[in-house]
Write a structure and sequence with these properties.
Helix content is 40%, strand content 18%. By secondary structure, it is an alpha/beta fold. It has two domains: 268 residues, Aldolase class I (TIM Barrel, Alpha-Beta Barrel), CATH 3.20.20.70; 157 residues, Formaldehyde-activating enzyme (Ribosomal Protein S5, domain 2, 2-Layer Sandwich). An eight-stranded parallel β-sheet has the order 1-8-7-6-5-4-3-2. Strand 12 and strand 13 form a beta hairpin. The N and C termini lie far apart (70 Å).
């Protein structure tokens, strides 16, 4: 009897760019990408595969394509779950007929049955289809928890061979391992607790992020198996932010990462969206960490400032011009955080002898009341380079509000500029020729100074990169370039 183990990516379902049609070619490329990096199996049509937003025929098509492309190289565990038992039986029977190794069956959802219904749902599928079955517990999506006592009962059925837990609750994993580890395999399905789950005794993991970093998860799996827990922990720490972002956004974050890595898988289907389940801030953080891991290669870019020709390496998203000419004025914006401590930066970078230099001089000479500009200082009397001017977006009306803008927000902006020069995002040779103006939004009710600092630092770092890379605006703040829809609308 098949027993699931190892690292298995919960495959996304690639669509064409309009999101309306499953893209067979992209799916085959993704499968080979994962196999090439050493995965032990693949899982089509699971949660990350957006199975609930696929038609039955689309699900069958995806499973058939994956089985064909895998061609016996690794195991195929097909997601065949459904809210209704009869549809789950139909999907599981189809999966068996096309040659999968096992079926992953999620607990019923929407109309949530009691324990009796859960048991009969699984026992009916297992009895009607002679195929290894893996139970699937993901209460954050189904609204229904699979009790460990139920797993203990279901483990007595011969062709139920495993359980995947995506709850992230290690207490559930340990209870199941205590009761059934000698009968069925337990798989981790939550990207943030992989090392802990494997160390506890899980036989493997089915992960959304294994589409993106399967090689790293395989290293972690091998380290745990060989007892090298410290090495496994260190690797998990390196990818923990990626794991957290993808675990929290599912197919949205996974597809965003793959698309950024030039493994084109298309968009997610509505109602999922970038800017929703995956915030724009999280997308920028995801991109930065993928670059650190070498999953996105930096590209050499040459641009001109006056008569100087400067060669630097930038880490670009998608297609970036190899020569950025007429570097006169560039703009972008970035958002970080949420609630009262949210940070929004409107950024302009340009030549000192261009229009931005004139704007700088006017702002200093005739400041608008409540929007008085301030030079970004890393420490008292030490202005950063390029010279950076901070202008409050919201009219300052009191000392407490002013202390937030000219205190932690100002320090964060200054630190972001210094770090951007240090890592080459802003070329060191250009700092004397450039000027930076940052409109800084700090909500009047913000009270957490540390969070104001962190959010403004992140927003400024992202805005600088986007400005240099020619990515001027963000859809969550400006819809159709209509400023009336800006969530932080203000009157200067």
């Amino acid at each position: 009897m098949f027993k699931p183990e190892g690292i298995l990516p919960a495959l996304v379902t690639p669509f064409r760019d309009d999101g309306k049609t499953v893209d067979e070619e992209r799916l085959r490329v993704l499968v080979n990408h994962c196999i090439g990096l050493g995965v032990h199996g693949v899982v089509p049509c699971g949660t990350t595969g957006e199975f609930v937003n696929l038609t039955v025929e689309e699900r069958k098509k995806v499973i058939k394509i994956v089985v064909d492309e895998v061609n016996g190289k690794v195991s195929v565990v097909a997601g065949t779950g459904a809210s209704g038992t009869s549809e789950a039986v139909e999907m599981t029977r189809y999966a068996k007929d096309v040659g999968v190794d096992a079926a992953l069956v999620v607990t019923p959802y929407y109309l949530k049955p009691a324990d009796r219904g859960i048991y009969e749902h699984y026992s009916t599928i297992a009895s009607e289809v002679d195929l290894p079955i893996i139970l699937y517990n993901i209460p954050q999506c189904t609204g229904l928890s699979l009790p460990w006592q139920m797993v203990e009962d279901l483990a007595q059925i011969p062709n139920i061979v495993g359980v995947k837990d995506s709850s992230g609750q290690l207490s559930f994993v340990l209870a199941v391992l205590e009761k059934v580890r000698d009968k069925i395999n337990v798989l981790c399905g939550h990207d943030e607790v992989v090392v802990a789950a494997l160390a506890a005794g899980c036989s493997g993991a089915i992960l959304a992020s294994a589409n993106v970093i399967p090689d790293i998860w395989i290293q972690i799996y091998n380290y745990v198996k060989s007892g090298e827990l410290q090495k496994a922990r260190e690797l998990q720490y390196r990818v923990q932010k990626i794991a957290r972002i993808i675990a929290g956004s599912g197919p949205v974050g996974t597809k965003a990462a793959l698309n950024m890595m030039k493994i084109k898988v298309g968009p997610v289907r509505m109602p999922l969206s970038v800017g929703g389940e995956l915030t724009y801030e999280a997308r920028e953080e995801l991109r930065l960490d993928l670059e650190k891991l070498g999953k996105m290669e930096p590209k050499p870019i040459t641009f001109e400032i006056e008569e100087k020709r400067i060669e630097e390496r930038f880490k670009a998203l998608d297609v970036t011009p190899q020569v950025i000419k007429d570097f006169n004025l560039k703009v972008s914006e970035a958002l970080a955080g949420q609630g009262a401590e949210v940070a929004h930066i409107d950024l302009m970078i340009g030549k000192k002898n261009g229009p931005l230099g004139e704007a700088f001089a006017k702002a200093k000479a005739a400041p608008t009341t409540g929007h008085e500009p301030l030079l970004a200082l890393l420490e008292p009397n030490l202005a950063v380079k390029p010279i950076t001017l901070i202008v409050p977006t919201v009219t300052i009306t009191g000392m407490r509000q002013a202390s937030m803008v000219y205190g932690p927000a100002q320090t964060a902006v200054a630190k972001a500029v210094v770090d951007s020069v240090a890592d080459g995002t802003i070329p060191k040779e250009a700092v004397e020729d450039l000027i930076v103006i940052a409109n800084v939004f700090v909500h009047p009710t913000a009270v957490d100074r540390q969070r104001v600092y962190i959010n403004n630092y992140k927003a400024m770092r992202h805005a600088i990169r986007k400005t240099i890379e020619g990515r001027p605006d963000i859809a969550e703040l400006v819809e159709n370039k209509d400023r009336s829809k800006h969530p932080f609308k203000y009157t200067p």
